[in-house]
Amino acid sequence: xxxxxxxxxxxxxxxxxxxxxxxxxxxxxxxxxxxxxxxxxxxxxxxxxxxxxxxxxxxxxxxxxxxxxxxxxxxxxxxxxxxxxxxxxxxxxxxxxxxxxxxxxxxxxxxxxxxxxxxxxxxxxxxxxxxxxxxxxxxxxxxxxxxxxxxxxxxxxxxxxxxxxxxxxxxxxxxxxxxxxxxxxxxxxxxxxxxxxxxxxxxxxxxxxxxxxxxxxxxxxxxxxxxxxxxxxxxxxxxxxxxxxxxxxxxxxxxxxxxxxxxxxxxxxxxxxxxxxxxxxxxxxxxxxxxxxxxxxxxxxx
Length: 302
Prior knowledge:
With about 300 residues, the protein is mainly α. The protein has one domain (about 5-300). Helices cover about 65% and strands about 0% of the residues. The chain has a two-stranded antiparallel sheet with strand order 1-2. Helix 2 (about 35-65) packs parallel to helix 5. The longest helix is centred in the first third of the chain and has 31 residues, at about 35-65.
């Protein structure tokens, strides 16, 4: 469980929930008598969470060998560095997670469109290359782009696509919102790890920007997520996400006030809670706020 990091899995799960809501809203899908569509939702969840778990495990073992995880680390313990699991066991766990995600993704492609294999394969590859290799994504400071793209836009809009076989503006914009919230989790983590990342050459965006600018960037990312979520529509229903503002402030406030080290661990927890609450409220807003469809004499169906 330490290696999987369950408190971060909202980044893989909630975009799928939001994407499914975007697909369900204003269509016959929501009350379909067949369970087949719901199987697609479950498969999409397996893909999102599987890639997240695999990425976390790869990060655990890669940071250990690259020297980013030491006894000076301020974050939650890492299983490879502490010797709780062997590197081989962690790698096997990562491969199993990626493998299950790949199988679920192949099935989704077979029942929707093989087009989704391209970004899906890219997401798997980036999950491995996030911290592996001499030019790994995290060490180049490109982690935020990876999270925004794959744990935001693709996870959300991709879920809508495998359910409806079309890309929609709403799911793409909602994907930006969810991706920004997931990026916040990463950024808070990287701000905390600046003192240990910089000496070993892990040039995350936080390291490159410096502590003060990284904290400002974090607050902008969270604020921008609210803007994107509201603009995704339907208005005014999506303004319900503003109910999450108190949770957002519990995350942003300590960062702006200079919280450091282990003081930032509650920020990560608040950011994860924010993504769950935000995603749930957005999904509710989309489902209740979208105009119903009238199908001839068959009545009104949402």
